[in-house]
């Protein structure tokens, strides 16, 4: 019984400042405003919806992959206010007013982001499932200045799993893009 009280108390700050619109049998919905890939976005979500599910299901941005849905694989990595996060581990309502960048927002028209191009040049993907999360994590790694050596890149990219084992090429791509950045 103490868990229910603790959960309710812990959830209250998450909803502070969000406009509650309606209550349903399954939960409550809230209107969230954010910039997604540079575009103002308003969306109404169930307060229990993960940021990953909002991106994929409500906004149709399916480049961000649902891998483990537990924060262990990194396939869902995106940038929130310039910081890389696992979007499966956070609620959409927690990011009202945030700047969200997904893989769909990296390219500039037909011109690929330097890391996207480096992934092609270095053959840094095999099945491709983890690629969007790897690239978004790599962009964050470069922005954070965590690319001084292959060992440092491996350490700071360690939350992103590639089941095909393309790690050597992924590290080479991040290094290549970092040097060109």
Can you characterise this structure?
With 181 residues, the protein is of the alpha+beta class. Helix content is 35%, strand content 18%. Strands 1, 2, 3, 4, 5 and 6 form a six-stranded mixed sheet that branches. Strand 2 (28-36) and strand 3 form a beta hairpin. The chain is globular. The termini are far apart.
List keywords for this structure.
single chain; 181 residues; alpha+beta; Ubiquitin-like (UB roll); DNA polymerase, domain 1; six-stranded mixed sheet; globular; disordered N terminus
Topology:
Elements: H1 2-15, E1 19-23, E2 28-36, E3 39-46, H2 51-58, E4 77-80, E5 83-86, E6 99-101, H3 114-121, H4 131-143, H5 150-156, H6 167-180
Parallel strand pairs: 2-6
Antiparallel strand pairs: 1-2, 2-3, 4-5, 4-6
**Poorly predicted segments:** 1-13
CATH class of the largest domain: Alpha Beta
**CATH-level-2 architecture of the largest domain:** Roll
| Distance between the amino and carboxyl termini | 54 Å
Supply the CATH superfamily name of the largest domain. Answer: Beta-grasp domain
- Give a count of the beta strands, DSSP E runs of length 2 or more: 6
And the CATH topology of the largest domain?
Answer: Ubiquitin-like (UB roll)
The helix-strand sequence is: HEEEHEEEHHHH
Radius of gyration: 18 Å
- Morphology call: globular
- The overall pLDDT average reads 89
Q: Note the total helix count.
A: 6
SS class? alpha+beta
Largest sheet: 6 strands, mixed
Query: What is the strand content?
Result: 15-25%
